[in-house]
Amino acid sequence: MGRARAVFSTRVGGESPAPREGLNLALHTESDPAIAIRNRLAFCDAVGAILDDLVLCRQVHGTDLLTVRPADAGAGGRSQDDRLGRADGLVRPGPEPPLVIQVADCAPVVIADPETGGGAVVHAGWRGAAGGIIGKAVEAVADMSERGRSGLRAAIGPCVRSPEYEVGEEVYEAFGHWGAEREKVFQRSGQTLSLSLGRAVEIALLSAGIPQQAIIDTAACTMSRQDLFFSYRRDGVDSGRLWGMLI
What we know:
Elements: E1 6-8, H1 33-47, E2 57-58, E3 65-67, E4 84-86, E5 89-92, E6 99-103, E7 107-112, E8 119-124, H2 126-131, H3 133-144, E9 153-156, H4 169-174, E10 186-189, E11 192-195, H5 197-207, E12 215-217, H6 232-235, E13 242-246
Parallel strand pairs: 2-4, 3-5, 9-12
Antiparallel strand pairs: 1-13, 5-8, 6-13, 7-8, 7-9, 10-11
């Protein structure tokens, strides 16, 4: 992505003991937060980031975005208490600071202008996807860019995907305003309804004006790859957390 890089973590490596063995990056899920901090330091070292520069927020499964400035660097890197406010997307005008969202089935999405380094990271579960957080993030990044939406790039990280992601009718109804596009992201098999969250994010990016050739999808499913990813749907409260980052 030029001056911007999208990075997604796996559970491979790290010091976390069972049941979250591996590279759990969430402070609030470790009995000893120092373990998660060591995991964060190791991951940052591996991807060329500095922990004390990162910015995290208080994710709430909504559609609000926060604009991040260089002065916010370090918020949430070592403590839950100093995270930024309630939001599910972080937007930066330029190449600093690195932005982070935490996931364990929801889709981590990175949108960026490769020329300026400006961009956004988004935590998109079904509520956020249905509620339009992807379009809001694209609009926010495009407003900061002189190249327009067609000049942006996007990456979709590991998330839970159909047919593993069984949902209720209320989720189907939440996407009602998508019209015919809704049928592209749901699958019915008998009494089972499932959502392809990755496909939903892709359609939202396309609808927001990101060209198909500018979207990279890892196509990785968190729920079906226990060896590589944490999954709240699979593991419940024992699940660790993964990171999606814009560096």
